[in-house]
Amino acid sequence: MSDLRDELRETLDEAEWEWLIPHVQRDAVILVSQDLDLLDVGEAIASDNISSVQQWIDEQLLAKPSVIQMGEWNSDRQKRFNTLILQPYVLVQEIAA
Questions:
Q1: Closest by Cα among 6, 25, 11 to 91
Q2: Model confidence over 7-30: pLDDT tens digits?
Q3: 51: how many CB neighbours lie within 10 A of its CB?
Q4: Domain spans of the chain?
């Protein structure tokens, strides 16, 4: 396992939607599909693996949260997400209810 992956693993956490709102307001949140491993995505972004990241974007597995999604989350401010901070971004993945 790489040192980068170990470093990223240490920053994995859970957060409530309420805590993520300031990051959304600065356009720094990236929603990661539940079909992907959050650490894999973080590692790809941190190591400039452009081909993987572009493929995930093309397949809509990585995206900015939509207005509809944010509206749903605003109605449930305790909604929880797995998070990975990768300056300047916060990668988030919905936790199934």
A1: 11
A2: 999 999 999 999 999 999 999 999
A3: 8
A4: 3-94
